[in-house]
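Q&A log
Question type: sequence-to-structure
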Amino acid sequence: MTAHLIDGKAIAAEVREQVRLTVEDRLASGLRAPALATVLIGDEPASQVYVRNKRRACAAAGIRSIDHNLPATTTESELLALIDACNRNEGIDGILVQLPLPGHIDPAKVVSAIHPDKDVDGFHPLTFGLLALRTPRLRPCTSAGVMRMLERIDVDPKGKHCVVLGASNLVGRPLVLELLLSGATVTVCHRFTANLEEHVRQAEILTSAVGQPGLVRGEWIRPGAVVLDIGITRMSDGKLRGDVEFEQARQRASWIAPVPGGVGPMTVAMLLQNTLDAAQSQTKEFPNEAS
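Response status: OK
Response body:
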């Protein structure tokens, strides 16, 4: 058996194109383009790349990116004041503050300051709580991207045993909630889990978001399983590797998402989808562009 590749780039491109077409329809009907406020603090290279890619994706989809580039010396109170201004700006639909933040700023306080209606990252406590209560609004982007990928390859998690490696607030926990919502039976493994191999071998759908290259041996994969590797690590040679031994796992799985080119592109695509959804859910429409 050689697994089919799940082409995250192609699926993400489909999502982005659909967002672009919907934005075009909005403009044709006299509504303004959705607007996303992006906030970058400091000059950390990886964060600069991530934010630049998100801003470019917005431009390609017809979403207005309102850019805030702040120095690393920005105080917590200054950042919270900016978020409050964006919350009150009726021409802004989504707010994205790039993480990680400088050590003197509390990320939990920042995330909680974003109005839930503009929480396009999906990390506000209310947003998270609504997903847990099975009434989601804006969904965390990476986990939503995983669910879109499963839908695209016609794999229904309902009734299947799904094993999630990693319990972070950013990926693992929201993914567990998404899978439960879809009707799956879910096992979540974390740093205190014993007998990891035993759990992996039972997975009909396996996801891993740990960031530990080679954590999952290819021989552990259940024959016919669907494998979505979300972990990504840049090695000393510059190459990117996932948590799963790809070549060995590919000989046992039915579907597998590679690293890179798998789940990664879906995160930005779902951010655009969330921004559009936030704009469409507004009770009022404001034709004038945000200042």
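Response note: The chain has two domains: 28-133+266-280, 141-263.
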